[in-house]
Amino acid sequence: MRISRRLRISPARPARRVPVPRPWVTALTAGWTVVALYVAQSFLPHNVISLPGQDGARSVATVVAPQGWAFFTKSATDPQYAPYRFLDGQWESASLTPHSRASNTFGFDRASRSQGIEIALLLHEEGIKWTRCDTSAPLGECLERAADQTIALTNSSPSPTLCGRAAVAEMHPVPWAWRHLSPDQHTPKRVAVWNVKCP
């Protein structure tokens, strides 16, 4: 004996639509765009854009929507400190960066990160003497001139990378507007030469 069941399929109900007036959407979009523009402009360096009431908006934006962009990025205009070693009668780079290269196991070896801390500790020692560099002369000449002001330091880093005759050069990036005038991306401003004793 067969039992057949028939299902009643009720017709689909049309979806309810809530009418949203287009002027409201346009006004909200325009309002949030202006707010975002003021907040962004308050935290950007001085530029060609100037909004009405921008100076007063900065104090409000700092309280309402504080942005710590420096946490995520480093300023491209900040100087870099490049380490060098004197080996076989010439100066050679002792930098372990970039962090992603094969010798650093593509970033898994953290020695390149600790080298920056090591350099910072050496630079904060007392009696550091800097020698100004001529931007038109090669870095090697500047290091040779700085040899007269060599001082002795002790490297307190647990895994030192700078031992013996070493130096640090303060390198400044070439401004973007002058990038075609120099083949280098950075120019030396000053150097410090040391005799580093490692434990």
TrEMBL record:
Matching InterPro entries: Sporulation_SdpA
Organism domain of life: Bacteria
Protein name, per record: SdpA family antimicrobial peptide system protein
Lineage, broadest ranks: Bacteria, Bacillati, Actinomycetota, Actinomycetes, Kitasatosporales
